[in-house]
């Protein structure tokens, strides 16, 4: 026997109110396709059996729990580093900080899933709203991570290949905020539109024992396919194109430099018309070498960010493939790699990025006064602590 609402779609204000729609069904019930897309189902369906062993679910749960705790700590430290040092308050790091916020949200969503994975056949009523929120926010956070990586790649491409004047015209205080908003708006709109049109239904998935979508819904496969197919390949293509352009540009640049300047003689002083006076001047060769050192510094940062990008796209790859191909038997294990993506990024910053490494070590050692180029926030905090 099935009973479900036949009312219209819930308003935005009612999206997270599970009391607006109630579905009681058994394993033979056909769920409505266009009504109540945000309905929570499978809460107490004891007839369904999981395709994963209890030991496998415990392994996934412990792995996700450890990963999420590492990710929360690491991403908070990254955000603190950007907030406390002016040295890290660059245009590129606006997108890095945005990536850390999305990683932090992903790790926070992982915590409830790590607990729910252990539940055998039903979800406690007290966790219903939390599970619904996690199921809605998880694909959004994953999408923001992908688009943030693509935004970082575009930023590095313009910084390396364009003149500084053109770069500063593109990235201003007036344009950075809309860019960040768009990065969040695309996955939010995609997820909302799919759910509002009946493609997918948020629920506690009894097969996977995580907050995701209702596997009994006929459009469940299409929902996962569209999320993985839109939020992953697009940003990946943008990132690969941008770093390919950077690679070609750098090769051509250094090839021209070697042909144009096979040998350089650097002058440090020149004679002055007035006697006994020698005025130091910077020669053209010295100026070029200084610019080359600056350029190499930016290239090194770009290499480090490219490594971060590779990790960010490789770790979610198994999960995306499992979603698109409908490999449900492997999906739960792919979740480990998906959440690990959000924990690895701060570790890479600390290991590969010299400026992040120095400041993050100061934070971990509580040496606040040793943080280079302290921001106004840090100066205020230090003054209050005296």
Automatic annotation (TrEMBL):
Keywords: Cell membrane, G-protein coupled receptor, Membrane, Receptor, Transducer, Transmembrane, Transmembrane helix
SUPFAM superfamilies found in the cross-reference section: Family A G protein-coupled receptor-like
Annotated G-protein coupled receptors family 1 profile domain residues: 74-349
Record keyword Nucleus present: no
Domain of life: Eukaryota
Presence of keyword Membrane: yes
Subcellular location: Cell membrane
Transmembrane segment boundaries: 58-83, 95-119, 139-158, 170-196, 225-250, 305-325, 331-351
UniProt membrane topology term: Multi-pass membrane protein
Gene Ontology cellular component annotations, sorted alphabetically: plasma membrane
InterPro entries: GPCR_Rhodpsn (IPR000276), GPCR_Rhodpsn_7TM (IPR017452)
Molecular function via GO: G protein-coupled receptor activity
Protein name stated in the entry: G-protein coupled receptors family 1 profile domain-containing protein
Provenance organism: Patiria miniata
């Amino acid at each position: 026997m099935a009973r479900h609402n036949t009312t219209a779609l819930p308003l935005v204000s009612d999206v997270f109110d599970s009391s607006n729609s109630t579905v009681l069904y058994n394993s033979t019930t056909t769920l409505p396709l266009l009504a109540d897309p945000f309905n929570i189902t499978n809460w107490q369906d004891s007839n369904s059996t999981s395709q994963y062993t209890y030991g496998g679910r415990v392994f996934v749960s412990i792995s996700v729990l450890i990963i999420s705790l590492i990710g929360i700590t690491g991403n908070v430290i990254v955000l603190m580093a950007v907030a406390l040092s002016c040295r890290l308050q660059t245009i590129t790091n606006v997108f890095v900080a945005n990536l850390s916020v999305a990683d932090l949200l992903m790790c926070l969503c992982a915590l409830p899933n790590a607990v729910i994975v252990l539940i055998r056949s039903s979800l406690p009523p007290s966790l219903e709203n939390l599970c619904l929120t996690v199921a809605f926010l998880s694909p959004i956070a994953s999408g923001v991570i992908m688009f943030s990586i693509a935004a970082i790649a575009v930023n590095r491409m313009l910084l390396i290949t364009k003149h500084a004047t053109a770069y500063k015209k593109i990235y201003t205080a007036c344009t950075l905020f809309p860019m960040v908003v768009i990065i969040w708006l695309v996955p939010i709109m995609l997820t909302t539109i799919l759910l509002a049109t009946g493609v997918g239904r948020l629920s506690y998935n009894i097969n996977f024992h995580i907050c995701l979508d209702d596997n009994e819904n006929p459009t469940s496969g299409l929902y996962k396919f569209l999320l993985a197919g839109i939020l992953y390949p697009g940003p990946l293509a943008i990132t690969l194109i941008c770093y390919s352009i950077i690679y070609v540009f750098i090769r051509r640049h250094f090839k021209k430099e070697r042909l144009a300047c096979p040998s350089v003689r650097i002058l440090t002083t020149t004679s002055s018309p007035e006697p006994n006076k020698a005025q130091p001047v910077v020669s053209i060769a010295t100026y070029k070498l200084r610019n080359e050192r600056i350029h190499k510094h930016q290239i090194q940062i770009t290499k480090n960010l490219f490594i971060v990008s590779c990790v960010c796209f490789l770790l979610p790859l198994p999960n995306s493939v499992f979603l698109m191909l409908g490999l449900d038997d492997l999906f739960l294990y792919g979740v480990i790699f998906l959440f690990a993506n959000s924990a690895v990024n701060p570790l890479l910053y600390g290991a590969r990025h010299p400026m992040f490494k120095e400041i993050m070590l100061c934070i971990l050692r509580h040496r606040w006064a040793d943080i280079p180029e302290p921001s106004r926030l840090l100066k205020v905090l230090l003054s209050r602590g005296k």
